[in-house]
Each structure stands twice: as structure tokens, then as C-alpha cells.
Design a protein that fits this description.
This protein is an alpha/beta fold. The protein is built from 13 helices and seven strands.
Length: 314
């Protein structure tokens, strides 16, 4: 199986994790194992746990990491990271990396149905099971379709596109990626089609996020990841659109803030302490050289925090 995946900001991610040879690390989004291989190379007595819910990615990660006895591949979504690690006797880790981008393999393998640029049956399922894009497009009510397009795609013409979809499917099911792409294009006024790239880009993003429950999975992971980090452990997240980046930025800021008392209080009474320090107050972005070599790096933003020791640990 051919599995191409360009590891976005590879050097920056390795620097962000501040890897120790004896540390325990998690790559929550294995993909083509690019980041995982670089982590594994830096370990001696340490351990690496690589997660992915895509069976294709799991197979290639196992193949590419088989020369690293310190690495273990887990077929699971990163939202279940804490449970899966606990089952393996791991309660604390020294670093977690999430690369939230869709892999090049998923985008470039036409039959996976992720891309608006290739003819394929509507699918978009990362785990290759559950509700598909076909079912979302052909069975969801107009109101729900509009909500998905508006909230997950930040699409200005969400209501109009949803109406066009519902009207079209009354004649016959919308079965392929190109059918959907053309339908979305026809729903957007001609004067607006040239703004922001391909006219179907936002709609495809929205439907993919809904199919894979991507924001729910990220939220679940963010809620649990902090407790997994050992003192001085690093959490690095690569995001690729504003919805993800906003969630990560807000959560990191919340962890770093500590006190939640109203500003008019003369002294702190909540006794909340900062749990992390922000390693990146502004996100790291790809270098000009990487941008020239890999167009999928253009929207990437890397944010990193480091866990502070609890008072009882001091």
C-alpha cells in the first residue's frame, strides 16, 4: 500500500516536544508515521505510543516503525488516548503531539472520497466505518446541513447550499464528490466563487468534520490530555483551520491563566494556579522553504505548552 504523507513542520514539532531519550511520548495522529519515526529515533529506553483510527494509517505505521522496539502503534482515535494508555499501564507521559491535518494519503486516494478535485463516491470516513458523507448529504435535514456548513465550514452561503442540496437529492441521490462540488459551486453567486480558493473547499471541510466528529474528538482530548502530562511535559498541537486553532488557543490560555476571580476582587480567593506555561505565545508557522515545498503547510499553526509541577510534587 502506497501511503504518502508530508510531515508538516517536522523540525519545529521535534523541537517543541523537547524529547528526552528515556521519556514517554504520544503521537496522537500517526498518519504516515513521519513524526513518529523522528520521535522514535531520539529514544533509547523511552517509549512511543502512536495512535490512529484509520486502518490504512495503522498498517503503514506498524510497517514503518517495526525497526523501533520502543514504539507501539494503537488503532484508536486520539480522543481515547487516556483510556488506551491506562490499559497499557501508562498514567503519565512526557510529551503529546497532535497533527490535526488530513493526511496526504486520505486526500490523494480518490476512493476515500475526501477531495473535491477527484471523482469518487462520497465517503470521507477516516476510520472507514460509521456514517459517511453520502449519508450526511442525502439524509440530513436542510436545517442540520445548513448548521454544519455554517459552523464547521464558516460558509457564508450555508443556507443556500443546503437548500440546493435538498432540492437536488429529491431528483436523485448525490453520489460522488464531483457532483457535490458542482452543486456547491452552482449555489454560490458567481461574483463570490473566486474568493477563498475552490468554492467547494469550505463545504467539504464542514462535511468531513461532521462525518468524523473531529471537533468533538479534539475537545475530548483537550479535556484529558493535561492530566496525562508529567511535570515539564510538553503538549504540541498542529492545527489547519480556525475552528481547531481557536479551541486549542482558548484551552491553552485557560490552563495558563490560573486565577479566575473577577477583576474587581482585591485578592485571589479562588486559589486556582496556572497549570502550564505557554511555550508559544503566538503560533509557529511553516518556513518559506517548507511553504514552497508543501502547499498543505500554508494554513498550519503550531501551539505548545509545558506542564507545571503541581504544588504537592514540589
Amino acid at each position: 500500500m502506497e501511503f504518502q504523507h508530508f510531515s508538516v513542520m517536522l523540525t519545529e514539532c521535534m523541537d517543541a516536544l523537547n524529547i528526552r531519550q528515556d521519556g514517554i511520548y504520544v503521537d496522537g495522529t500517526g498518519g504516515g508515521a513521519g513524526h513518529s519515526q523522528e520521535i522514535a529515533k531520539r529514544l533509547t529506553t523511552g517509549k512511543l505510543f502512536t495512535f490512529d483510527k484509520d486502518p490504512d494509517a495503522v498498517a503503514i505505521c506498524r510497517e514503518r516503525l517495526k525497526g523501533y522496539p520502543q514504539a507501539q502503534v494503537v488503532h484508536s482515535d486520539f480522543s481515547r488516548m487516556a483510556q488506551e494508555l491506562k490499559a497499557r499501564g501508562i498514567t503519565k507521559v512526557d510529551g503529546i503531539l497532535l497533527d490535526l491535518g488530513v493526511s496526504s494519503h486520505q486526500l490523494d486516494t480518490a476512493q476515500r472520497g475526501f477531495s473535491y478535485q477527484s471523482e469518487a463516491k462520497l465517503d470521507m470516513r477516516m476510520a472507514q466505518e460509521g456514517v459517511s458523507a453520502y449519508e450526511v448529504v442525502n439524509t440530513y435535514e436542510e436545517r442540520e446541513l445548513a448548521r454544519i456548513l455554517r459552523e464547521y465550514g464558516e460558509e457564508k452561503f450555508a443556507q443556500r447550499i443546503a437548500r440546493f442540496i435538498v432540492q437536488a437529492r429529491q431528483e436523485s441521490p448525490i453520489e460522488t464528490t464531483t457532483q457535490l462540488a458542482e452543486l456547491v459551486k452552482s449555489a454560490i453567486p458567481a461574483a463570490k466563487r473566486r474568493e477563498g480558493g475552490h468554492p467547494a473547499k469550505r463545504s467539504f471541510q464542514a462535511i468531513r468534520i461532521a462525518v468524523n466528529s473531529e471537533l468533538d474528538a479534539l475537545s475530548e482530548c483537550l479535556e484529558r490530555a493535561l492530566d496525562l502530562l508529567a511535570a515539564d511535559g510538553r503538549f504540541a498541537v498542529l492545527t489547519f483551520h480556525s475552528l481547531e486553532d481557536r479551541m486549542v488557543k482558548q484551552k491553552f490560555a485557560q490552563w495558563a491563566k490560573g486565577c479566575i476571580c473577577p477583576p474587581q476582587f482585591p485578592v485571589c480567593v479562588c486559589n486556582n494556579k496556572p497549570k502550564v506555561t505557554l511555550i508559544t505565545r503566538k503560533p509557529i508557522e511553516a518556513t518559506p522553504q517548507e511553504l514552497a515545498e508543501n502547499r498543505r503547510s500554508h494554513s498550519a499553526k503550531l501551539r505548545v505548552v509545558q506542564r507545571l509541577a503541581d504544588e504537592e510534587e514540589n
